[in-house]
Design brief:
The chain is of the alpha/beta class. It has nine helices and ten strands. Helix 4 packs across helix 5. It binds adenosine-5'-triphosphate and magnesium ion.
Length: 270
């Protein structure tokens, strides 16, 4: 069957409302979500947010404001105390434990501490991500070198994590998260252990991934990165969303206001 034909059938079905239009749905929705941990800590409070397909957004705020909690709610590592999280329109509360691997298959995750397997080389670390989702050997042989080229690590394929710099290790982690081309990529403080130059490289990589169509959410408290990339910024303070701004800066204080004005001036001069 031709792609054109399949697409026409899908469109007709959508028009008849047999199947939901996945493209029109937000990829991630928080609907009045609160999370109170066992000890009574209110980590997020009445958060309502929606992320469209192809968005690039930062979640910022001081330590303990609830950034990682938001990430963990999205992969159903934890459950909200109140409210609902939906992924591609599907409520996670109605997703059984058994179905969680299907959810995770569609979400790439990058952490601050890379979480690589120390006794596997670069190739195997990335291949592992495909192996666990049941990819065929042929698929793995084709995709791993391709993604390692994309992240600029083709020459380090056989090296072990302890033979790599922090930036290189994080690129392996990004490769592993993206090798299956998930529609959603989460990065929790991906540059937390890196110097500014290397951080920019990692952020550029995430940005390229986003430009290829993947929705990317980055939790960070690195103002330099946020201010450079100028994408949507969601600011949390003690679990509450206190700002949701397109093309935002890290903070809305005087110095950054000044910075914004200077940037605008520079743009006009160009
Ligand atoms: N497993 C847990 N049990 C109890 N309280 C927790 C747990 N995890 C996080 N918290 C609390 O919830 C709040 C939010 O934590 P969270 O890890 O989401 O913050 P964060 O914004 O990611 O911080 P950081 O910038 O330091 O990573 C904090 O007050 C924290 O102490
Ligand atoms: Mg955190």
């Amino acid at each position: 069957m031709s792609t054109e034909h399949t697409e026409r059938l899908a469109r007709q079905a959508r028009e008849r409302k047999d199947v939901p239009d996945d493209n029109a749905r937000p990829v991630v929705e928080f609907d009045h979500v609160s999370k109170i941990y066992g000890g009574g800590a209110v980590a997020v409070e009445d958060v309502s947010l929606s992320f469209k397909r192809g968005e690039f957004a930062f979640i910022v705020g001081p330590t303990g404001c609830g950034k990682s909690t938001c990430m963990r709610l999205i992969i159903k590592e934890i459950e909200p105390t109140e409210g609902e999280v939906r992924i591609a329109g599907r409520s996670l509360s109605s997703l059984s434990r058994r179905k969680i691997p299907y959810l995770r298959r569609n979400i790439g995750v990058v952490f601050q501490d890379y979480k690589l397997l120390p006794n596997r080389n670069v190739y195997d670390n990335v291949a592992y991500g495909l192996h666990v989702i049941g990819a065929s050997r042929a698929d793995i042989r084709r995709k791993v070198p391709e993604i390692l080229r994309l992240v600029g690590l083709a020459s380090k394929t056989r090296n072990y994590p302890d033979e790599l710099s922090g930036g290189e290790q994080q690129r392996v982690a990004v490769a592993r998260a993206f090798v299956n081309h998930p529609p959603l990529l989460l990065a929790d403080e991906p540059t937390g252990n890196l110097d500014p130059g290397t951080s920019i490289d990692i952020m550029r990589l995430l940005y390229r991934i986003n430009r290829a169509g993947t929705t990317v959410l980055v939790a960070t408290h690195d103002p330099g990165l946020v201010n450079k990339i100028r994408r949507r910024v969601i600011e949390l303070e003690r679990g509450l969303v206190i700002r949701d701004q397109q093309k935002g800066l890290y903070a809305v204080d005087e110095s950054t206001q000044e910075f914004a004005t200077r940037l605008r001036e520079e743009e006009q001069e160009e």
